[in-house]
Give the backbone structure.
Amino acid sequence: MAAPGNCRREFCQNPVPTALAAERLCLDHFLDEAFVRADHALEDCRNGRTIHSAELEWLLADALSVVTHLEDQAATPNPADRDHMLELLLILANLHEYVAHHFVQLDIPA
Ligand SMILES: [Zn+2]
């Protein structure tokens, strides 16, 4: 399998891990982006704002599986990255919990 290449963020030369080939982001940038999006989604849920179903799906399916997959890999990055990943898992778990127990307004495209 061809290497996924480098991160798509401007000025970032970090390699893209295989687990992130679809996102074309390095681990750092993926975690950054997932954090921001998970935080937003959780805040929107709590404020009763409409959540895009695709966004929720990305967070609870794609991002979650990527982080779980990365965590499973033997060549786990440095401890700081690991902490970062565990933090993200916690936010995603909160989001999951919130969605399971509250009425969340989903914007489902027709
Ligand atoms: Zn990057």
